[in-house]
Amino acid sequence: MKADLVRIALIPYFVLLLVICNWNVKLYSAVTLNSFYFLEYILFIFCGLAIARLMDVSQSTYRQKSARIIIIVNLVVLLGFFLLGFLRIFVFFDVRYFYQISFLLFGYYVYLLVISLRKGENP
């Protein structure tokens, strides 16, 4: 139960950290074009697997008040990251795919919020 709450809380930051680390590897090392696309391929596989792990969380966990608070806080933080990147306030927001993946995570957490607010029915 607690592991599910930790998973809900940390997965978006893990995915965004993967995006930033992937960009830094490509930016600061001399990579060839083939390895550049291979790193992107690996990035999308790991991001997809991390996001898919959220569907393993039981419905009773999503219905807890603490899970709803975590989801709402993550929504606000992801929206803040997206807006800060859009306004180009921080340097690392020039990372390729950061906007798309943060927007994807924002949409997914909206879906999780809808699941957590449903009463008595299984999604």
Average pLDDT level: 79
Number of helices: 5
Indicate the structural class: mainly alpha
Q: Uncertain regions: pLDDT < 50 for 5+ in a row?
A: none
Which geometry do the CA atoms define?
Answer: globular
Mind describing the biggest β-sheet?
none
**Count of individual domains:** 1
Rg, Å, rounded: 16 Å
Keywords: Membrane, Transmembrane, Transmembrane helix
Give a verbal description of the structure.
- By secondary structure, the protein is mainly α.
- The chain has one domain.
- The protein is built from five helices and no strands.
- Helix 1 packs antiparallel against helix 2.
- It is globular, with a radius of gyration of 16 Å.
- 19% of the residues are buried.
- The mean pLDDT is 79.
- The chain crosses the membrane at residues 5-25, 37-55, 67-91, 97-117.
- Keywords: Membrane, Transmembrane, Transmembrane helix.
Brief write-up:
This protein is mostly helical and 123 residues long.
Pick out its properties.
mainly alpha; 5 helices; 76% helix; 123 residues
Topology of this structure?
Blueprint: H1 2-28, H2 33-52, H3 59-62, H4 65-86, H5 98-117
Helix pairs in contact: 1-2, 1-4, 1-5, 4-5
